[in-house]
Amino acid sequence: MLDIVCLCAAWCGTCRDYEATFAALQKALPGHRYRWIDIEDEADLAGDIDVETFPTLMLAHRGRVLFAGPVLPRLGDAQRLVEVQLQAVATAPDRVRSAGPANLPVDQAQAYAELAARLAE
């Protein structure tokens, strides 16, 4: 099971459009924990995460971040991302436990890790 989180903002038109896609993702790939976090309304939960591009997804497994970054607002892209991360968890669980997304600055990797840990509680 993954934690699949969309980080968004109410003022963002792309986020509002993506909300239906995120709901469709939940329907297409049930069995995961989905969370829609408005980074302004839920600033305490979002912590120090600095979202530069909306929508931003975070995928985590047992409190470990697998992916964190912007995605194109297309269902097929989100489904493929989830499926790839599920396969990584299934085939290389040791790698998942020891590595997070390499594309993030250290402070942002830590901020996403803190969010993932809070959601796994």
Termini gap:
14 Å
CATH topology: Glutaredoxin
What's the CATH architecture name? 3-Layer(aba) Sandwich
As a percent range, the share of helical residues equals 40-55%
Number of domains: 1
Task: Name the strands of the widest sheet in spatial order.
Answer: 2-1-3-4
Shape: globular
Low-pLDDT parts are: none
**What is the name of the CATH superfamily?**
Glutaredoxin
- Quickly name the level 1 CATH class: Alpha Beta
Secondary structure tally, helices? 5
Q: How many strands?
A: 4
**Order of SSEs:** EHEHEEHHH
Return Rg in Å.
Answer: 13 Å
- Helix-strand makeup class: alpha+beta
Overall mean pLDDT stands at: 90
- Beta strand %: 15-25%
Written description of the protein model:
With 121 residues, the protein is of the alpha+beta class. The chain has a single domain (3-120), classed as Glutaredoxin, CATH 3.40.30. The protein has helices spanning 13-28, 43-46, 75-91, 93-98, 106-120; strands at residues 3-8, 33-38, 56-61, 64-70. The chain has a four-stranded mixed sheet with strand order 2-1-3-4, with helices on both faces. A hairpin with a 2-residue loop joins strand 3 (56-61) and strand 4. The longest helix has 17 residues, at 75-91. The two termini are 14 Å apart. The model has no long low-confidence stretch (mean pLDDT 90).
Please tag this protein with its features:
single chain, alpha+beta, Glutaredoxin, four-stranded mixed sheet, 5 helices, 4 strands, 48% helix
What is the topology?
Blueprint: E1 3-8, H1 13-28, E2 33-38, H2 43-46, E3 56-61, E4 64-70, H3 75-91, H4 93-98, H5 106-120
Parallel strand pairs: 1-2
Antiparallel strand pairs: 1-3, 3-4
